[in-house]
Amino acid sequence: MADAARTPASLLESARALLSRSVAPYSRFRVAALLEGADASVHPGVNVESASYGLSICAERSALFGALARGASRFRRLALVSETMRPVLPCGACRQVLLEHAPELTLVLERADGSPEELRLAELMPRPFTEFRTEP
Predict the structure, then answer these.
(1) Does residue 131 form part of some domain?
(2) d(CA 24, CA 127)
């Protein structure tokens, strides 16, 4: 899809198409994310669960880590959907990681009626942990 044609609604639709790829045998809570790069590239992600919950990964980090592994480095929007048809927000861990790599990111969420809602990620976590460096 051309960049000019990629509306918030079309991002949500593309993310929704990924829900069947989610691996959520324990929670049965499927989530899909579509991360849009500054160059209009798109990077899919889904949640993948493990019997050892701590080894599971959220859709948001799945999309981000895949994008970074493919060499992408600048991002503008993240569409996020679940089967609940209500806005799903990133967990604290995802917020932190996303803010480190995409501090200006806009979230595109799905309202109960299916319409898009846009929200800046920084609004959800206004004071993220940042790396502390000291000079040698």
Answers:
(1) no
(2) 31
